[in-house]
Design goal:
heterodimer; A: alpha/beta; Rossmann fold; 8-stranded mixed beta sheet; 10 helices; globular; B: alpha/beta; 6-stranded parallel beta sheet; 4-stranded parallel beta sheet; elongated; binds iron/sulfur cluster; P-loop_NTPase (chain A); iron (chain A); metal ion binding (chain A); oxidoreductase activity (chain A)
Chain lengths: 265, 369
């Protein structure tokens, strides 16, 4: 049996982590892998496209209601091709602490989930940049051993990606690759690929910007499920294969702010 | 899934503190509280009386924002340098846990010779026994206790929690603290019963070091019975098994038995000093088989852990150290309930039996007979 892959996808908010995560999950499930996706973003939209547009109760929703979560079935739901979906959820904006929420939810999940051990791939869709201790809880609690950074060729997402690399070396976590989710800016592939090389990693996928991804998402499906014979579906498939096959992760070296600016100029 | 328990309004023991006490029982020499300087102040100081050093990383506002990793590494190294302890504990607090501090990373980085027991705990657990459990889990990980002892402790913790929820300070939404009955009046009643030739069982069912004072009640009752010439009317039960429990807990039992000398004979050992939540079953069997016709029982320590069926028909005199235990005991049907106030501070760091107020009152009244 292959060793279990436990990856986290980091990147600036709004850059497309959730849709990348869910499409990769669907592609791996198509290949026959046992996959689990754990959405840590309070919007809880990592799993929605694997569940035909249905929202599942989040771990923190249940805790807020004062429920005692004892069984896996309370928070783990099966979606497309038996992908196991979990959403962490979050507190109301302006009240409470999202970072702590993730810590608590992750600990709870670790305790109750038996099937986590049986997965070939577990994907953590982590919110935004690495900021506080809570956001890196999945790594710290030993649940993640590889990270991917998602970015586009624009300055801000790259800035965030660079920051994330700083965070990763701070917590001794390897980077397995950079993924570009294209915004169709000029020289995008070149910029991101250069960035990836300079931090010591590789560009593992270039996902072109295509309306079909949005359309499938709006309908509540992954591209793999709804538009499996498109080119973009093939891109996700290749990425999924790369992820499952990857075995070279590096300690990323973050760039200076000046260098980063130069790169995007 | 099930709804969580009803929330309790009165302040209650903290899991952080419970973890500190457990580290002490594991013979940890220095415990580091990773958090604000004022956290668990009273107990941290009290524990120092008991031979364990408690230090703090003293996280301030800056620490809350930027984390306290470096401070903790520093403190671990400082502790090793200054105290050369054989065993170290690190205990989380609400602050360090909320901001997601990793105790383990700091411990790895500090790279000390002595084993370090890490306890990721904060004060926000309804059952403070969580603090004990986390400390034990970690002690198991570093090989300080074995699995068998761990499972035994786990079982006792569950039972202790059940007892507190059913009959103890966690049994009601709000419990009024109370000093209980007047000791003079109750002591008089006990002497009156002894003089009338009634037969009594004296049960020591104490929690760990609190036994240093509760045992004084056994001793005092014995002295009084001897003085009145009715010592045959009293039998003594005590949870003073010296073969059970974490290292320090066994020592307490040895000290107390040694201090009783030959003056007090313990007729029935009902378990170890950490078995107070389960000793009740043994008490019940003993009474059913041997002591059914006894008239009264004096129960010191955790009287609410003894099932009422066991005590049927007896007049009950119970001594606790929790002012919030008075009402639950009265509700259970204990006629006389006494509180030994401030028992805990007086029993930390001692190796001899400590005089109790009720014991002193009994002795004084017997003198006047
Ligand atoms: S709130 Fe928590 S961390 Fe702060 S002093 Fe109280 S117990 Fe300690």
């Amino acid at each position: 049996m292959n060793p279990q892959k436990r990856i986290a996808i980091y990147g600036k908010g709004g850059i497309g982590k959730s849709s990348t995560a869910s499409n990769v999950a669907a592609a791996c499930a198509d290949e026959g892998y046992n996959v689990m996706i754990i959405g840590c973003d309070p919007k809880s939209d990592s799993s929605i496209t694997l569940l035909g547009g249905k929202r599942i109760p989040t771990i923190l929703d249940l805790l807020r209601e004062g429920m005692e979560i004892e069984k896996e079935e309370d928070v783990v739901f099966e979606g497309y091709k038996a992908v196991k979906c979990v959403e962490v959820g979050g507190p109301e904006p302006g009240i409470g602490c999202a970072g702590r929420g993730i810590i608590v939810a992750i600990q709870k999940l670790k305790k109750i989930s038996q099937s986590m051990k049986e997965m070939d791939l577990i994907i953590y869709d982590v919110p935004g940049d690495i900021v506080c201790g809570g956001f890196v809880a999945p790594i710290r609690k030993g649940l993640v051993n590889e990270a991917y950074v998602l970015t586009s060729g624009e300055y801000m997402p790259l800035y965030a990606a660079n920051n994330i690399c700083k965070g990763l070396s701070r917590i001794n976590t390897k980077l397995s690759g950079v993924i570009c989710n294209s915004r169709s800016v000029s020289r995008e592939e070149e910029i991101v690929s250069k960035f990836a090389n300079e931090i010591g990693s590789d560009l593992v996928a270039f996902i072109p910007k295509e309306q079909i991804v949005q359309d499938c998402e709006r309908d509540g499906y992954s591209v793999l499920e709804k538009a499996g014979d498109t080119d973009i579906a093939e891109v996700y498939r290749t990425l999924a294969r790369n992820i499952m096959a990857s075995d070279c992760a590096v300690d990323p070296r973050a760039l200076t702010d000046e260098r980063l600016r130069e790169l995007t100029r | 899934m099930q709804q969580k328990n009803l929330s309790i309004m009165h302040p209650r023991p903290s899991s952080i503190v419970a973890a500190l006490y457990t580290l002490r029982d594991l013979n940890v020499e220095v415990a580091i509280l990773h958090g604000p300087p004022g956290c668990s102040f009273k107990h941290a100081r009290l524990l120092e009386e008991d031979g364990i050093r408690v230090v703090t990383t003293a996280l301030d506002e800056n620490g809350f924002v930027f984390g306290g990793h470096d401070r903790l590494v520093d403190m671990l190294q400082k502790v090793e340098e200054r105290f050369s302890p054989k065993r170290i504990g690190v205990v989380g607090t609400c602050v360090s846990m909320i901001i997601g501090e990793e105790l383990h990373e700091a411990v790895m980085e500090a790279n000390l010779d002595a084993p370090v027991i890490e306890v990721e705990v904060h004060a926000g657990y309804n059952d403070n026994t969580k603090g004990v459990l986390f400390a034990l889990e970690s002690a198991l990980d570093v090989g300080i206790i074995d699995r068998q002892e761990f499972e035994r402790q786990q079982h006792l913790l569950n039972e202790a929690t059940n007892v507190e929820k059913k009959y103890g300070a966690a049994s009601k939404e709000y419990l009024e603290p109370s000093r209980g009955d007047v000791k003079y009046t109750v002591a008089k009643r006990v002497i009156e019963m002894l003089k009338a030739g009634k037969k009594g069982i004296c049960i020591l069912n104490a929690k760990k070091e609190t036994a240093y004072m509760f045992a004084d009640i056994t001793v005092a009752l014995q002295e009084v019975a001897v003085k009145l010439g009715v010592e045959d009317n009293i039998v003594n039960f005590a949870n003073l098994d010296t073969e059970l429990g974490l290292p320090r807990v066994r020592q307490h039992a040895e000290h107390i038995l040694a201090d009783m000398h030959d003056n007090v004979k313990i007729d029935e050992i009902i378990g170890g000093l950490d078995e107070y939540p389960i000793a009740g079953q043994q008490v019940r069997q003993l009474i059913e088989s041997k002591y059914k016709d006894f008239d009264f029982a004096v129960i010191a320590g955790v009287p609410h852990a003894i099932p009422m069926e066991a005590l049927e028909g007896m007049e009950l005199i119970s001594i606790t150290n929790g002012p919030r235990q008075v009402h639950p005991l009265k509700d259970m049907g204990h006629e006389h309930v006494l509180v030994e106030i401030d028992l805990h501070p007086k029993t930390l760091g001692v190796t001899n039996i400590v005089e109790s107020e009720f014991g002193a009152t009994l002795r004084q009244l017997a003198l006047e007979e």
